[in-house]
Amino acid sequence: MKNIENALVILAGGNGSRFGKKLPKQFTQINGENLIHFFLKSIDLKNFDKIVIVCKISYFKYLKKLEHNFPSIKFIFTQAGKDRQSSSYNALKCLKIFNPNYVLIHDAARPFCSNNLITKILKSLKKNSSAIPYIVNTDKKMILKKDFNQNIKLIQTPQGFKFQTIFEAHNNALIKNARDDSSLITEEKINFVKGEKFNYKITYADDLHYFKLFLKPIYKSGIGYDIHQIDTKTKKGLKLCGVKINYNKLIGHSDADVGIHAICDSIFGALSMKDIGYYFSNSNPKWKKKNSIYFLKFAKEQLKKKKFNIVNLDINFICEKPNINKYRKQMIKKIASVLLIPEKIISIKATSNEKIGFIGDGLGIAAESIVQISNENIY
């Protein structure tokens, strides 16, 4: 078989015991992507002819999505060993048949490695047996009451090697449970390259805040509108934004709460979904006289499912009567309690239609809503 040029190994077999979650850190979802996906989308995959991912068989299911998201890559998934060293060796044995010239071995817990660092490592391997990224520890520590400035190299991954060099090092390893692959090769074959300060390793759950440095927040907006005819034969039964008002009710299939219907449609719009009528058709008897709070709870669940949060919600009623301002605080309180958002980010306003048209004649009430959502939790 013809030799390939470059291979990449991603070690994802750790239990993440210090992470403190049921699911190991490497499979934690950030905006719908696990750490491995985040890393892979940040680099130029054309640099690698083969990519091997090592993890426990029980977690292979979390890797299958990668094949869909990166269809041009022929992934190899292989079983993790009892420790990091044996996991790395398993990956190298998988690659032996392809006999790559160079291999980079990377920890899945370092998702912020840049393409620049990978390019630097590959370039260094053209002249050296290895390319080990590092940063210098500039912290000062007190040791035996002496001020000791540690110019110690803090080793990072990915670590680059000529394939034959690292494969033979694993074959002939005299130590067990090595902390990294560079520990297995002889000192004269070690070549260091400058690493990156932001090539952080995720160890604890609190470390996930590093993602804020790399993720650009997404903001989306949606508009909703609804209008219903007033039932002039009644004198009560009106409900707006979930609040009962002593005024003529509106005619509709459900409870005809134009406020909530407009809010739902604005949320659906921001999430690039269809309109409220698609999910709660007025031809379906199931929704006959249904409390619209149910629809709003559905909208809230869609926000949660798609990992978005409401930043601001603006509702405007268009009617001659009733006086919306009297019920404004109650409406805000109700909407906030259902959507689980702060009251301060909700605005409820109203305007008349200046006696013009259907609404101006007191025959209908309309509501419009504008919502802004974000993948950041601002509040």
Mean of all residue-level pLDDT scores: 91
Percent strand equals 25-35%
Q: How many H/I helical runs?
A: 10
Shape: elongated
The SSE string, one letter per element, is: EHEHEHEHEEEEEHEEEEHHHEHEHE
Helix content: 10-25%
CATH class of the largest domain: Alpha Beta
Query: What is the straight-line distance between the termini?
Result: 57 Å
Number of domains: 2
Mind telling me which CATH architecture of the largest domain this is? Alpha-Beta Complex
State the fourth-level CATH superfamily of the largest domain.
Spore Coat Polysaccharide Biosynthesis Protein SpsA, Chain A
Supply the helix-strand structural class: alpha/beta
Number of strands: 16
The third-level CATH topology of the largest domain is Spore Coat Polysaccharide Biosynthesis Protein SpsA, Chain A
Spans of at least 5 consecutive residues with low confidence: 142-146
Tell me the Rg in angstroms. Answer: 30 Å
User: Main sheet, how many strands, which sense, barrel?
Assistant: 8 strands, mixed
